[in-house]
Every structure is written in structure tokens, then in C-alpha cells.
Design a protein that fits this description.
The complex is a heterodimer of chains A (359) and B (112). Chain A has 359 residues and is of the alpha+beta class. Chain A contains 8 helices and 20 strands. Chain A is globular and about 60 Å long. Chains A and B meet through helix 3 and helix 8 of A and strand 2 of B.
């Protein structure tokens, strides 16, 4: 079980821990409701060192990534970036990659579960291209600063402008004397900034941002997962996997329609052209007995979909989630049944469309 | 019939390479045949004039044309015949590759 460079400082701050893939990560710092409020009203900090990070170098890097993924990334100006989906030739998702064009190469973020899969996939399709991939996940730490006060806190501790950054834009800054790579990624929909430093500097960065309790409020996985579900953002291991295509995962904003050939392009475009998308990601209001994750949904005995994510809201107490719903049932205010092992109805799900989602 | 362990170029394809490059019969012509990732089905063919072999290239000479193939591309190309289909409805240079399992709708991409 891997631990991030911030494990000790999180533990001494009262964190409880949970598992994400093969990582042991902070789940909560004791008061989930106040973590939620800090993120919505103030400024919060989340340790996301478990996110896969690669440094991609070589003059053919963007050209290769462009041929293997759904968005147009062949030309990225330094300081900018893009999200793009690595797809199979059947249009299924290997992973959603976030690519940032930095001074010393491309920074590529992957899901924690897909580091090896993504590296092997790219390597498989590399022939004579000048492209190298270096997995930098374990040599660095990454913390994410969230909330409406995030830009002003970051400007204060870095003595640099941050509020002008758009999503996927990056800047090198110095925080408490620590060289920090900062980029905007909005992982819960509202503005969110990732800060990457060498692992030796991780604790010092955390302290600089939390400022002994008067800066950013530490939050953990429970709060993060609630926020991203609330924002309708799909996540690898829940909504995103190799069993789904980008339309089903509500990631169509990362499909570029004018870029020409890439692996799986024909399938992905035909799904839309011929109206063949069979399932849609929808928002769910749930009632009944939890746990809800992975539970199937029915309408009068017919399978209608699956609950992919569900949480109990830390402030309001209701159960909310996301689900993959068959097209025939994917309309607002449809009520679907959650059935128990004996076929009896044990809960209900009210469906609504996602709005907003990933920026 | 091409043996599984090599790649061939047909006489027709060789003639068209000569025509496109303006080389006369007897002049040396050197082509690099390669696989590139991308394309709807995953892989595409790349054909280019090249006279710089790599140490690890496989070199084949046929019908006056020298073909260079890098080690990795060779795995996907073994058994392939490079032909030429001309005329108004012709496709130009075509790769008849027994390893290709699927192709995309426009025919430029394949998977193994």
C-alpha cells in the first residue's frame, strides 16, 4: 500500500485514512461538514499525490498523443494544456489525460489506477517517434487548492498572479522558497489549482498553504468524492473504465470533431451521427437503504441502469449519486427502482440531467 | 505467395515508386516502410523515400528497390505485400497485410 509524502503530516493533523486503488490516502480530518463548507465558501487543500504524473519529452510527443487521443493536442502553446481521452480502436476509454505544456516538456496526468496501462499503451504505439515517458508520480507530491478564496490565498503565498489562469494553464511559482509548478485543473468543477513540488518539499508546501490553521482547510477523499459527484464529474473506477465510451461518461467536451484520424475516431463519431449511444450519465437523487454503489436500477422489472457513485451529503444529509442509464429511461424526473436480492423495492432513484460537469 | 518472414514489393509497385521519384531504371531507390500509431483502427502505414538505414533495420531488395523497415514495424508487417492499384478508381500504394484483422471504413487504418 503506497502512501503519499504527506501521510505523516496528515496523520498528525487528525486524518483518518482510506484506500484508493493501491494508495492509502486521507479520508477526512474529523469534520466532513466543515471540510465541505470550507471548499464551497473559503479555501481548502486536498492531497492528490496519488494522481499519475508523467513527464513526456521528445519532439514527436504532441503529434503522437494527438494520433492516439480524442482532442486536438498537436499544437499546445507553452503554458497551456488540454484534456484528451486515450481511446481504444473500439472507442472505449483507456483514460482521460490532462496534458500541460511546461518549460521542460509535457506534464501528463492520469488516473491513479491507469499509470501502467497508459504508459504501456503509448509505448505500444510508439515506433520511430522521438518520445520518452518518465513516471514522476513517486518523486513528487501534488496538492490541490480549492474554493472561491483559492486564487487569493495562492497569490498571497506565491507573491504571483494566479487569478488570471484559465483551466489547463500553468505557471512556475515559488511558495515559501519552494519551486512549485502550478496549474489550474478544476477537479471538482469550481476553480482548483494543482501544486507540484518534489517530495522532499511536500510538508513545507502543505504548511505554507495551511498557514497553521488560518489558511486552507485540509480536506480528504470523502469530501472530494462528494464534491465531484455533486458537480457531475465522472471518475475512473466509478464512471470511467474500458467498458464505456466518451459519450456514456459525459466526456464529449474532450472529443474534437475536426481533427482527423485518431485511434477509435470512426466508432466515436458514428455513435453520435447514428444516434447509437446506448447509455447516459445522469444525476441521481436516491432514497432507501445504502450502500448504493454498483447497484442496478430497474423500471417495472426491466433493467434500466446502474448506480455508479453514491454519497451521503455531509451537510444536507440526502443521498446523491451518478448513474449510467439506458437511453430509453434517461429523461429528467424519471423514477427508477432499486431492488433488493428478492426483487423487492428497497429504494428509489430520481434522475436528472447533468449540468456543468468538467470545465 | 509471400512467406510470413519477409515483406515484398510487387513489380508494379516498384515501377510506380520509380515513376513518382523520377528515377530511371537502374538508379538506386530506397524506401522506408513503417507503421505509425493512430488512425481509426490503431495503426497506419507510412511510406517515404529514405536512404539512411538504422543499425537495427531489416533491409530487403526487390525489383531494384531497397526497402528499410525498423525492427518494431517489421513485427506488424511480416508477410505483407506492397502493391500498387492504379486507374481512376485505384487506391495508389496498397499494403496487403495478412496480420491485419480489422480496418477502418476508409481503409487507411488497420489493427492486428
Amino acid at each position: 500500500m503506497a502512501r503519499t509524502p504527506l501521510y505523516d503530516i496528515e496523520r498528525s493533523s487528525g486524518a483518518t485514512f482510506t484506500h484508493l486503488f493501491d494508495w492509502e490516502i486521507a479520508d477526512s480530518f474529523g469534520d466532513l461538514a466543515s471540510e465541505y463548507r470550507a471548499t464551497c465558501e473559503g479555501v481548502a487543500v486536498l492531497d492528490r499525490s496519488y494522481v499519475g504524473r508523467f513527464l513526456v519529452n521528445g519532439k514527436d510527443s504532441l503529434d503522437l498523443l494527438n494520433r492516439l487521443s480524442s482532442y486536438k493536442v498537436d499544437i499546445l502553446d507553452p503554458g497551456t494544456g488540454a484534456g484528451t481521452i486515450l481511446t481504444t480502436n473500439k472507442g472505449r476509454i483507456i483514460d482521460l489525460l490532462y496534458i500541460f505544456c511546461l518549460d521542460d516538456g509535457l506534464l501528463m496526468l492520469t488516473s491513479p489506477q491507469t499509470r501502467q496501462r497508459v504508459a504501456e499503451w503509448i509505448d505500444l504505439y510508439t515506433f520511430l517517434e522521438d518520445v520518452t515517458l518518465q513516471d514522476t508520480t513517486e518523486s513528487a507530491a501534488m496538492i490541490t487548492v480549492l474554493g472561491p478564496e483559492a486564487p487569493s490565498l495562492l497569490e498571497k503565498v506565491s507573491n504571483n498572479t494566479v487569478s488570471d489562469l484559465q483551466v489547463f494553464e500553468s505557471r512556475s511559482v515559488s511558495i515559501a522558497g519552494i519551486p512549485t509548478s502550478l496549474h489550474r485543473s478544476d477537479p471538482v468543477g469550481s476553480c482548483g489549482y494543482d501544486l507540484i513540488v518534489s517530495k522532499e518539499n511536500a510538508e513545507a508546501l502543505w504548511s505554507a498553504v495551511t498557514i497553521n490553521g488560518v489558511g486552507a482547510t485540509p480536506i480528504g477523499e470523502a469530501c472530494y468524492n462528494t464534491l465531484r459527484i455533486e458537480a457531475g464529474i465522472p471518475r475512473y473506477g466509478w464512471e470511467i473504465s474500458e467498458e464505456v465510451n466518451p459519450w456514456e461518461a459525459n466526456l464529449n467536451q474532450f472529443i474534437h470533431f475536426e481533427k482527423g484520424c485518431y485511434v477509435g475516431q470512426e466508432v466515436i463519431l458514428r455513435l453520435d451521427t447514428y444516434d447509437k449511444v446506448q447509455r447516459h450519465l445522469m444525476r441521481l437523487e436516491l432514497s432507501g437503504e445504502s450502500p448504493f454503489n454498483g447497484v442496478s436500477l430497474q423500471k417495472q422489472g426491466t433493467r434500466a441502469g446502474t448506480i455508479t457513485s453514491a454519497v451521503k451529503h455531509p451537510v444536507f444529509g440526502n443521498y446523491l449519486g451518478l448513474g449510467l442509464i439506458r437511453t430509453a429511461y434517461a429523461t429528467d424526473n424519471t423514477e427508477l427502482e432499486i431492488t433488493g436480492s428478492n426483487g423487492e423495492i428497497v429504494g428509489m432513484a430520481n434522475i436528472s440531467s447533468l449540468s456543468g460537469g468538467l470545465s | 505467395m509471400v512467406t510470413p518472414l519477409t515483406i515484398e514489393i510487387t513489380e508494379n509497385a516498384a515501377k510506380h515508386v520509380r515513376d513518382f521519384t523520377g528515377r530511371k531504371q537502374g538508379d538506386p531507390i530506397s524506401l522506408r516502410v513503417a507503421i505509425k500509431g493512430g488512425g481509426c483502427s490503431g495503426l497506419t502505414y507510412d511510406l517515404a523515400i529514405d536512404s539512411d538505414p538504422l543499425d537495427t533495420d531489416k533491409i530487403i531488395e526487390e525489383h531494384g528497390v531497397t526497402i528499410m523497415i525498423d525492427k518494431k514495424s517489421y513485427i506488424f508487417l511480416a508477410g505483407t505485400s506492397l502493391d500498387y492499384s492504379g486507374g481512376l478508381n485505384g487506391k495508389g500504394f496498397i499494403f496487403n497485410n495478412p496480420n491485419a484483422k480489422t480496418t477502418c471504413g476508409c481503409g487507411t487504418s488497420f489493427s492486428v
